[in-house]
Design a protein that fits this description.
The protein is α+β, with helices and mostly antiparallel strands. Helices cover 22% and strands 28% of the residues. Strands 1, 2, 3, 4, 5, 6, 7 and 8 form an 8-stranded mixed beta sheet that branches. The longest helix is centred in the first third of the chain and has 19 residues.
Length: 208
């Protein structure tokens, strides 16, 4: 076969392969199942703790499915009409006092999120802007803590800006598991208050 013919055939094969791997025109920037790809973070966690770094990097990637797989659910007895967020509300068919799983998610007020809704809760907390690692610290014991196994570390992820203020989410992590989620409810400084921090693993960073 002549060299020129060989080059033409190779080029045609390459184009065909690229077409087969690409999505259709209607998908836009969508990923699998039409889910829009979020901006990729330029940050990577490097605390030296492999399980902690893996969890933080899943969050920095906005991989809510992996984050849900890493969720450390709390077991609570549900209540038919809970006062505040002391316990998850019982669903239809669940008797009061039934043992259920939930993840504590605080958006100014604490709520209990059941496992099937956790990916959406993570997505709402992370938003759609590029994510940055703002800080990682060991927390002080909290008064009136609701967790059976409180966080060993808190990773603060900067999620963008709102009305000129930096926004963020704090992920409580224990043994590589996400045991709590808290949005800033008024600014990132609230998540980095000295009353919360026992010691820093990653000092607070200047964010663009």
């Amino acid at each position: 076969m002549k060299p020129r013919t060989m080059l033409v055939l190779l080029a045609a094969a390459t184009i065909a392969l690229a077409a087969g791997c690409g999505g259709d025109d209607e998908g836009g920037d969508g990923g699998e199942d039409g889910v829009l790809a979020r901006p990729t973070s330029v940050d990577r966690a490097g605390t030296g703790d492999q399980s902690l770094d893996g969890t933080l990097n899943a969050a920095l990637d906005g991989d809510v499915i992996e984050m849900a797989a890493l969720a450390g659910y709390q077991h609570r007895a549900c209540e038919a009409a809970p006062q505040g967020a002391s316990a998850p509300a019982c669903r239809e068919g669940e008797a009061a006092g039934a043992d259920v799983e939930g993840l504590p998610v605080t958006r100014c007020d604490l709520a209990w999120v059941r496992p099937e809704a956790v990916p959406d809760a993570f997505a709402a907390a992370l938003g759609d802007q590029p994510l940055r690692l703002a800080a990682v610290y060991r927390p002080k014991p909290a008064d009136g803590a609701v967790l059976e196994q409180p966080a060993e570390y808190v990773g603060v992820i900067a999620t963008g800006a709102r009305e000129g203020a930096q926004t963020a989410v704090a992920l409580g992590i224990r043994g590589g598991r996400i045991v709590s989620v808290e949005t800033d409810c008024g600014g990132i400084d609230r998540l980095l208050g000295e009353e919360r921090v026992a010691s820093y693993v990653v000092e607070p960073r200047e964010l663009d």
